[in-house]
Amino acid sequence: MVVGWEWDDTLFSGTAAYYERGRLPYAAGLADALAEELRLDGEGRLLDVGCGPGTIALNLAHLFGEIVGVDPDSEMIAEAGRGAAGRGVGAKTRWVRARAEALPAGLGTFAVATFGQSFHWMDRDLVAATVRDMLRPGGALVHIADLKTEPRTVDGMPHPAVPYAAVDDMVKRYLGPVRRAGRGVLAQGTPGAEDEVFARAGFSGPRRLVVPGGQVLERTFDDVVAWVFSMSFSAPHLFEGRRDDFEADLRLLLREASPSGRFSERAPSTEVFVWRKGPAAA
């Protein structure tokens, strides 16, 4: 858990509806890479912890016989359910509103557990140990995130880059210089060193995979606004009565950065760490 901060149920309040449009996609080859690494055959059970609107779980649904997503936010759970129905996989998916700290919650055992940029919000030692006990022998815990260390320039692309630094400055002008998170703030940001946590929990590994991104994306003003409102540190409710003013100023900033109304962006690669319950596979 983040030192000096307590989770509360407003952390992602109001953000779920903006995820699909605002968030950049994971690399297109993620499912194939995991299928090969974990020898997935369409059977077995997947536990997606901190599933949000089902971003990872739904992209992996064809690789498992059953999907269980867990998230404390009711709007995220509702979006995941709608997404599953739209993809025709509602019959083999289950969405549970609960904090990760409430696991195992009678959910049974699983072949694979995934965390997609959610683990840092949890009581990490408790959750890692609990999830290890929920995995069958030889099961895998998979930690998935955007690769943060690669350059993603827009040189040679038809539109300018999204002015992320200027957007961040505007958020700080409205919400203050310290990162907001629910009803509290994160003066030191979210914790890292996940490898130490998983090792303490008794996992072996990890095996690191990088699934290449790099495809050229075109982003509109609406896409960028959705990205802002999909983030915990700029969730819509944080602006209180000034949300409309903020959005108007944000759109003006974006118009000044790109009069055409379009931005170019390069999709990030996806970094995956696979941890095993028990001795690492050969």
Describe what is shown at a glance:
With 282 residues, this protein is an alpha/beta fold. It has helices spanning 16-22, 30-38, 55-59, 74-86, 124-134, 164-175, 194-200, 221-229, 243-257, and strands spanning 45-49, 66-71, 93-97, 110-116, 135-146, 179-181, 184-186, 203-211, 216-220, 262-266, 270-277. The longest helix has 15 residues, at 243-257.
Structure characteristics:
282 residues, 24% strand, 7-stranded mixed beta sheet
The amount of helix comes to: 25-40%
Quaternary structure: single chain
**What is the radius of gyration computed over CA atoms, rounded to a whole number of angstroms?**
19 Å
Low-confidence stretches: none
Q: How can the largest sheet be summarized? A: 7 strands, mixed
Strand residue percentage: 15-25%
Class by helix and strand content? alpha/beta
**CATH architectural name:** 3-Layer(aba) Sandwich
Plain-language structure description:
- The chain is of the alpha/beta class and 282 residues long.
- The protein has one domain: Vaccinia Virus protein VP39 (Rossmann fold), CATH 3.40.50.150.
- It has helices at residues 16-22, 30-38, 55-59, 74-86, 124-134, 164-175, 194-200, 221-229, 243-257, and strands at residues 45-49, 66-71, 93-97, 110-116, 135-146, 179-181, 184-186, 203-211, 216-220, 262-266, 270-277.
- The strands form three sheets. Strands 3-2-1-4-5-11-8 form a seven-stranded mixed β-sheet, sandwiched between helices. The chain has a two-stranded antiparallel sheet with strand order 6-7.
- Helix 3 links the parallel strand 1 and strand 2 (66-71).
- Helix 1 packs across helix 8 (221-229), helix 5 (124-134) packs across helix 7 and helix 6 packs antiparallel against helix 9.
- Keywords: Methyltransferase, Transferase.
- It comes from Streptomyces violarus.
- One of its GO terms (molecular function) is methyltransferase activity.
- This is SAM-dependent methyltransferase.
